[in-house]
Design brief:
385 residues; alpha/beta; Rossmann fold; nine-stranded mixed beta sheet; 36% helix
Length: 385
């Protein structure tokens, strides 16, 4: 091959890669005046503090070769405004998904902190990706208690005069947000008769398993609830889990991301998975491997379904669709685009509940249900019926 021809091929290869990068950027900026305005970073500089707390009132169960311990240790972090202008601030407790970790949603938490929120997230003891003995789903029933413990700790530190969080947390404005298994933990902490925390005032579930919940599960609570689901989700299918929400809960808002995936919600997706047609294909490989390992350690017996694990009022334990059953994966939107839409939806929903200005609350509700879908054709919004 002639040298000039080799050089030409190299140049064409570089140009092709450059074009692909340009067409698949790791960041996204929304179109539409209202969306551009709401997507601006807030006025606060954001501080971060790592945490390592232990709930000594509860234990961590044995798990395979792990013998268990008499406490539940929660390692994670806090994102909060560096100044106190506007304090006390609303508190957001974020819950990560199965085999994931506490920084999974930091793109959301950093954005909220810049707008005057305090956010905390921690690795759940037995469902995080580095859990002793391997991550398990069954510990989800204990994770609402972890959420309550995090709320306890944040409120206590807000009362300590020598703590950086002193005076920063508003006990009357507390929200829970979670993804996947963390979305289910969020739903349990907000609504479950046995596990709910009455201090929670708003809840957001991103692709949380919910097909086994009946209207009775949500009835009589009145907590504003937003569910965000993607139609290309192969792990927690949209039709079974997201689509029924407005009929199940009259206080709910369903935000549908056309071609949104499951893995597309996580923090690293725009950088690591932006080349994939649907990152759930890779996510399903890891998930099914983890479930197979858990089943093998259970003597090969079928694992209980999530509905069976949770039980109680408002739960249909027989309603369960296994994850990752699709033989073909639908094309998914770019993760960067998904992050933008998720951030806009969560921020506007929380502001519609927690802003101290009635005008802002009304404007943000109008933006969420009207302007967001009008300015973004890949989003639709339905309110509870």
């Amino acid at each position: 091959m002639r040298p000039l021809f080799k050089i030409a091929l190299s140049i064409l290869g570089v140009l092709a890669i450059a074009a692909y990068v340009v067409l698949n950027p790791p960041l996204d900026r929304p179109a539409g005046a209202f969306s551009r305005q709401n997507y601006r970073r807030g006025p606060h500089e954001v501080s971060y503090q790592s945490i390592r707390w232990a709930d000594t009132s509860r234990s961590t169960a044995a798990n395979r070769e792990f013998k268990g311990v008499g406490v539940r240790e929660l390692k994670g972090g806090i994102w909060f405004p560096a100044d106190k202008q506007g304090a006390p601030f609303p508190l957001v407790v974020y819950s990560h998904g199965y085999m994931s970790q506490y920084k999974e949603g930091q793109y959301i938490l950093q954005f909220l902190a810049s707008h005057g929120y305090v956010a905390v997230s921690a690795d759940f003891p037995l469902s995080n990706g580095s859990a002793p003995g391997g991550a398990v789903i069954s510990d989800v029933v204990n994770q609402p208690g972890d959420i309550s413990f995090l709320i306890d700790q944040m409120l206590a530190r807000s009362q300590q005069a020598d703590n950086p969080l002193h005076g920063s947390v508003d006990r009357d404005r507390i929200a829970v947000v979670g993804l996947s298994l963390g979305g289910l933990s969020t739903e349990l902490a907000a609504f479950d008769a046995k596990r709910k925390d009455p201090r929670i005032r708003a809840a957001v579930s991103m692709a949380g398993p919910s097909q086994f919940f009946t209207p009775e599960f949500f009835a009589g609570n009145g907590i504003p609830f937003m569910y965000i689901g993607g139609t290309a989700d192969a792990i927690v299918p949209y039709r079974e889990n997201a689509q029924p929400i407005p009929k199940e809960d009259k206080n709910a808002v369903l935000v549908t991301l056309e071609s949104g995936s499951h893995v597309g919600f996580i923090d690293m997706a725009p950088t690591v998975f932006r080349w994939l047609d649907n990152p759930d294909k890779l996510g399903c490989t890891g998930l099914m491997r983890g479930l197979k390992s858990a089943q093998e350690s259970n003597g090969g017996k079928p694992l209980p379904t999530l509905g069976e694990l949770i039980g109680g009022a408002g739960v249909d334990a027989t309603a369960s669709t296994p994850p990752c059953q699709a033989t073909e994966f639908a094309h998914a939107m770019r993760p960067a685009r998904q992050h933008t839409l998720v951030t806009l939806a969560i921020y506007s929903f929380l502001e519609s509940q927690f802003s101290t200005s009635p005008t802002v609350r009304n404007d943000m509700h109008e933006y969420l249900v009207d302007h967001l879908p009008k300015e973004n054709q890949d989003v639709s919004v339905r309110v509870g019926e």
